[in-house]
Amino acid sequence: MRRFQGSVRADTISAPLPAKRRLLRPFRFGRGARERPPEAEGALTEFSPHRPPRLVFRFGLYAGLALLCAAAGGTWLARHQATARAERDVWADAKFTADRLGRDDLSHIALARPVRDPGTVGQLDELFGRVALSRGVVRVTLFSRAGQVTYSTDHSLIGTMPYDLGKVRQAMTGKEVHGLSQLRGGLGANPMVLHSYVPVYWYFDKNSSPNGVIGVYRDYAPVASAIRQDTLLQAGAITAALLILYLLSFPILKSLMRTLQEDNRLLVKQADALRESEEQYRLIVETAAEGVSLLDAEGQIVFANRNLAEMLARPVEELTGKPLVAFMDEHSRAAADPGWFRSDRGSREFREFTLLRPDGEEIYTTMSANPVFDHDGAYTGALAMVTDVTDRKRSEHALQTMEQQLRDSPGAAASKQAASIAHDFSNAVTAISGYSEFLLNRLDPSDPLHREAAEIRKAAEEAVGLTRRLLAFSRRDSLRAQLLDVGAVVREVEPTLPSLVGEEVHVATRVDPKLWKIRADPEQIKQMLVHLAIHAAESMPGGGTLTIEVGNAELDEDFAREHSPVTAGEYVQLAVSDTGHGLDERAEESVPDPSLADSGSADGAGLGLATVQGIVKESGGMVWTACEPAGGSTVTVYLPRAHSDG
After folding, report:
1. Per the domain annotation, does 148 fall within a domain?
2. How remote is the C-alpha of 613 from its chain's centroid?
3. Do 170 and 190 form a contact (C-beta atoms < 8 A)?
4. Domain boundary among 442, 477, 512
């Protein structure tokens, strides 16, 4: 699985953490995750297209009730206003009549004492019949200052004390008294009337107290009929206006419902997509080969997957809330730089840390950290990926122990001595080969000494092959590794290659100017280049082109699977190509390593490639060959990239 690269921004993330540990996360992982409540599953549901939504019925019901209430309120208000208007009209009539009385001398007689004289009563009947009774007034009564009835259109009441004496006395104080009541006393029926009591002043003496009170009683029946008609008209207008408004609101409601329906469908899709995304992320995290932990800004674990818990032999609940460094040994705790977790460098580098189980067992791991930032760019934590490399570390330790034992064995000492002798012998043979070449160039082929010189050169070549065999199988000295530029080594060795591969072979080199560095022994890399060049030259007896290319290579998981045992990572790639005869079936059967093909089986070149394989393995690299019959071959060496901080 490819690791997370780069920093992470908390954009999609929702649940706030406790104080001082605010790291947003999109969902909860593992067994501790809360299940979605059943009601939440149905919280977002689509409206049925076959029946109106329930909200439409509710709106219609509530709007209808509101319409009825508004109509009833409008009707009551109209009736109340009409009644008040009628009362004011009666009071205005009474006031008009009182003003008339104040100008008439007859009122002095009528208000002073009860009128018993038939002539005076007739005059008053004529006066009130002309002024008041023609406008629907059923009774007019005059009251003295004491409240006694001095005159009434109902003559039976003259001289009596009125039933509405309290209202008469209120009017004597100057107040407006009017209202609706049941007419009482007198002859005939007693209908509902609108009564009004107005004080009477002498026309020329209005500053004095009232001389009496006039009471006017209007029949309420025709007034009520007029009020009903007026009320019905106003109520009808109000109801019609509200009904029109009610009907006009339905298209608006339908448009609103369509908008809500579309929004609801969108929310349903988003919720489904979110649930699917949560399930996918949960599956990825819980089935990841690495241990996954989410840290807050203080480095405390807010989430850990099951793999990390199993790696530490602890339950997930025990990890949550504790710093990640609390589970490291002292050396790793001291080397855990908080700045590394906060920087983008943590996502590109893999550092080694040793974790401890409860029983003290050490777990060797490699770790990468991806910083997490909020919307404001503030650091809120990191996502740490932890890989268990305990088995690999133990295998490497066992291998180093075996190699050290081999170096300390008597056979290793003998190999070193043989290598020393081979180097000295090689120097002598080189001198012999040089002088033999000099003689062959100076002597005529017909000269008998020419044949002797040729035999000397042949013997020297055989001695060179013997030297190569000795060096190939006796090299067991320790690796003196250091940061190394392979391009510089190629440029250093390049001038010596023509004398090794022959004048018929053209040597071409291509070196990447931005080449990464490796960690290796420079002498061994030089020896490896010489062996690869000799191997390529021997596959081109008739001459050809030898090409050496050096560049950077990033190998992914797919490439590694197709080129086993190559592993993914960053490498410096050294490729040596030739235009020779390639690899035949006999040579394929004599390959010394599954990833290393050779063009010979038992001669010096085959041993040379075995030496190359040993050097590459000591440098932590890999060798891969690509060749075709009669099509040339390419030996590619992958040496791991080394960083300056080690």
Report:
1. yes
2. 50
3. no
4. 477
pLDDT tens column, 243-262: 787 777 777 777 777 887 78
Distance CA 198, CA 101 (A): 11
User: Dihedral angle at the C-alpha atoms of 51, 52, 57, 59, nearest 10 degrees?
Assistant: 170
Say which DSSP state 135 is in.
G
Structure tokens at 514: 């931005």
Q: Are residues 187 and 304 in the same domain?
A: no
Decide: 260 and 54 in contact? Cβ < 8 Å. no
- Confidence label for 153 from pLDDT (cuts 50, 70 and 90): confident
What pTM was computed for the model? 0.34
Residue 588: alpha-carbon gap to chain centroid: 56
Range of the domain at 437: 409-477
Q: Mean pLDDT, the chain, as a whole number?
A: 75
100 and 230 both lie in a single domain: yes
Task: Note the pLDDT tens digit of each residue in 252-310.
Answer: 777 777 887 788 888 888 888 888 887 777 777 777 778 888 899 888 999 888 888 88
Tokens of 426: 């090689």
Q: pLDDT tens, 491-533?
A: 988 888 887 788 888 999 999 999 999 988 888 888 888 888 8
Q: Tell me whether residue 33 is in a domain.
A: no
Relative to beta strand 544-555, strand 505-511 is parallel
Q: Cβ distance 291 to 364 under 8 Å?
A: no
Let me know how long the chain is: 646
Residues of 351-380 as b/e, b for ≥16 C-beta within 10 angstroms? bebbbbeeeeeebbbbbbbbbbbbeeeebb
Of 13, 1, 4, 593, which is closest to residue 350 (Cα–Cα)? Answer: 4
- Which is it for the CA torsion 556, 559, 562, 568, positive or negative? negative
